[in-house]
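Postdoc handover notes: sequence design on the structure in folder B. Input tokens:
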């Protein structure tokens, strides 16, 4: 496939976070303001409506790849174009192929990822020293794609904060795998439509969550729309842990103090 030649007009891939325009970076807002056409996945055309006034707004996932490239070529003749990228490019983004083809005509602007927004909403550090020593991002949809890939149960080890995107497992099965990995009942949060209309967060333990949710289909497993539901799963001990000031003082004595001297 032939890449676009370098020209003045650009395509901006703007990290749009979970969909709240208040989380757009200043750089992203400036780039968006200068674009005459914007590709906005649903429901971003609604949540960003005020910033999209007077612009041509399109949904990117209604096109095949070559159709999208052909349309971009025409739109670029008139000026800059933007894509509002859910979260940002870092994880589970479908826009990499477009960026590779566009080459120097593409500019990526970092955004507030859903994991960052969830951490802020829950008011929890995801790798809390002495509680969780690592945070792991995974999706059951992609686990097992390659021989020897770890299972969800193998990732859900004690001391791990696990963030699960695009879950496609029924909640009882998901909980069973997590309990097998953690070896105990740890806290779990279902963060549904974060920063969007219909926002809801269910916080419980692995022993409680199935009964608490009941028949509610947070993951869109029974609906006619095959797209993943906008529900992030966060599990791990850090969700219920509290800490005192000893860690702060340790860092004060071993790290920060020496930088001041």
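Designed sequence:
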């Amino acid at each position: 496939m032939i890449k676009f030649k370098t020209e003045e007009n650009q395509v901006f891939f703007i990290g749009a976070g979970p969909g709240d325009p208040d989380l757009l970076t200043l750089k992203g807002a400036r780039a968006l303001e200068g674009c005459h056409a914007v590709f906005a996945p649903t429901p971003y055309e609604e949540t960003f409506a005020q910033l999209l006034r007077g612009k041509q707004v399109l949904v990117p996932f209604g096109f095949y790849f070559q159709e999208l490239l052909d349309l971009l070529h025409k739109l670029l003749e008139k000026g800059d174009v933007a894509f509002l990228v859910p979260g940002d490019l870092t994880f589970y983004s479908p826009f990499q192929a477009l960026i590779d083809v566009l080459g120097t005509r593409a500019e990526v602007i970092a955004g507030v990822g859903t994991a960052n927004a969830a951490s802020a909403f829950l008011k929890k550090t995801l790798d809390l020293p002495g509680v969780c020593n690592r945070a792991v991002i995974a999706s059951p949809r992609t686990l097992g794609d390659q021989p020897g890939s770890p299972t969800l149960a193998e990732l859900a080890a004690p001391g791990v904060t696990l963030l699960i995107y695009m879950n496609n497992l029924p909640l009882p099965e998901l909980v069973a795998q997590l309990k097998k990995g953690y070896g105990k009942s740890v806290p779990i949060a279902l963060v549904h439509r974060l920063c969007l209309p219909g926002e809801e967060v269910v916080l419980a333990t692995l022993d409680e969550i199935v009964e608490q949710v009941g028949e509610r289909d947070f993951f869109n497993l029974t609906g006619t729309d095959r797209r993943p539901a906008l529900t992030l799963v966060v599990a791990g001990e850090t969700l219920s842990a509290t800490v005192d000031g000893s860690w702060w003082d340790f860092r004060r004595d071993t790290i920060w103090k020496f930088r001041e001297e």
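Context for whoever picks this up: The chain is about 30% helix and 20% strand. Don't rerun without checking with the PI first.
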